[in-house]
Amino acid sequence: MQLRRTALVATVATLAAALLTGVAPALADLDPVPPPSVGPPTEPECLPLGAGTTGVLLVGGQVPSGDQLSGQAGGLGAPVTGDLGRTLPDRVVFKDSRHTFSNDYAFALRQGRIYVRPAKVGVGRPGEPWRRLELPTCLDGRVQEISADHSLLIALGPGRQVYSHDMAASGDLSAERWTWRWGPYFWTGSGMRLYGDVRAWATSEFTSAERLRDSAGRTHSPIGVATVYLLRGDRRRITYLDPWLPQDESREVCGPERGTLPLTGLSGSGSTVFVVGAGGELFTRLYDFDVSGANTVFGDFTWERGLPADDPRWQLPGPTWVRQPEPPGRVTDRISIAKTGSHADQRLLTVEGRDASGRRGYWRKTLTAERWTFVRTGAPLQGRLLPTRADRRFVADDRRYVGTVGERRAVVADFNPECSPARLSVQVAPGQRLDLLLHSSDGLRQERRDRGLTDVPREYNGAVEVPWQTWRQLASQPAAVRRWVATHLDGRFTTAPLAVTSTRVRFLDQCWQLTLDGEPARPDEPALPPDAGAVVGRLTELQGDGRAPSTCLP
């Protein structure tokens, strides 16, 4: 994506807004009583890792380690021999909490220590042994889980504290690169611990040297984003974390079938999420903070359709879930996805299971292929065979809001805080209803908030869409419909940023308001402290769209 601003300008803008609102962008920006998921390590010997070079804006991966300066292979310890060596695999087929791989290495976790071997897509380089990864003293022998993608390695230490290592451009694994910093601003935050109810999690990195195809088919280079996807204990929520974003549970990937499908497994790579449902359903989706349209500081987005192929703006809404074909056999809940190239379509899917003859092994195919190939191993299955018992679908987390839109009664039948679009119906005249779509994507934030909707307004980037069938036949629609569209909309897509609470939807540009089931709304609660990120995000979205600030009163 072409950036409207350099990283430096965006940095200055955000920090300036932070200072104006009294928010200090400091490493030690801790709550007086931080929630369990937020804060630095409790082990004093780990605190110096707050100075690790991973994530340092613009220069982190370029800072040479002591090993590099001395001409050594950073972080690679002695070769593994004996009984321990025999427990380490020739190749890592499935990424899980004990085995993973990056662009250049395979990793394995044994008794709190990490072992490493040069590898491509998990396959070890011939002649290269497994070696002990040299870790900071406070982590050595105390690592609980690991996950990696591209050049990012994440380890959970004591208390499930998140530690990250960027491996730098040269694949340097030096211990001094590890850091527990996580969160705003720009990966300088106070750290976090992974939630205890996580069923599966995956690290993802999508770099600016790679490419993706947006929902309109245009090709872009990513901004560069690191993401951690979490399948939560309720089997429906997919929380996602980003080292530049607040350490909270407020950002989610809407699950397949509008979040109603019970999920049993998750994997991720290169901003592509791969999940399996309780019935063996397999879905993939390209999704991260940038693809969703939330990063208005660093990127340009548009809701308009029919733009030229070379238009630099990313299409909204972003890509949706793609259901993958079912393998001609049984599958388990053990799945994995891996990068095989620099385009988002170049991904390898792997699913453990049995073939039609009952032989054990795993199914494989590329992301866009129609057919699976079975690799027979004969090894015992480690996952649960699917389908499991007949799981009922979850009820969608939808809300009904009623009010006045463009001087006419309107109903948003199914607003969902994580899943878009919702249905917006406007009674333009007696007996004449106009059915529209209301799109919403989470806005920029740099302060923590609760998940879902509360009485603190949650801002969304949004748009009202006239469905294609209605738009193409607009000339033949009743006069009341044509008049309402011409008066209140800007075309087929109308930009409509939203502020939503559990009892109210406000259209910030149009000054429209709807309330939960048409009942009086509770008063809004202010966001404390004021969110500098939301201010900057709102201003850059206005600038990008060429819109004037809203004059609506709360």
From TrEMBL:
Signal peptide boundaries: 1-28
InterPro entries: TAT_signal
Keywords on record: Signal
Protein name: Tachylectin
Organism: Nocardioides szechwanensis
